[in-house]
Amino acid sequence: MAQSVQYWGSGPHQSDDGWERxxxxxxxxxxxxxxxxxxxxxxxxxxxxxxREARRAWRHAQREQQYGGYGVxxxxxxxx
Length: 80
Known about the structure:
The structure is a single chain. This protein is an all-alpha fold. Helix content is 61%, strand content 0%. The protein has one helix at 19-67. The mean pLDDT is 81. Residues 1-22 are annotated as: Disordered.
């Protein structure tokens, strides 16, 4: 009577039983995750810089509107 056997190893041709491949996949996954984190950080830094630039432009426009371009940054407006 023949019994069916399930074999979960990598086969007799591979002496490390697949552990080396698993370790390699784990390293690749870690590298990919680090790259994704670095890319997300770059995108976030770019977004923050864009927000800063927008705030600078808004403040500049407010000063231009308030002072008419004269005396900007000095706290007064020319009298002539």
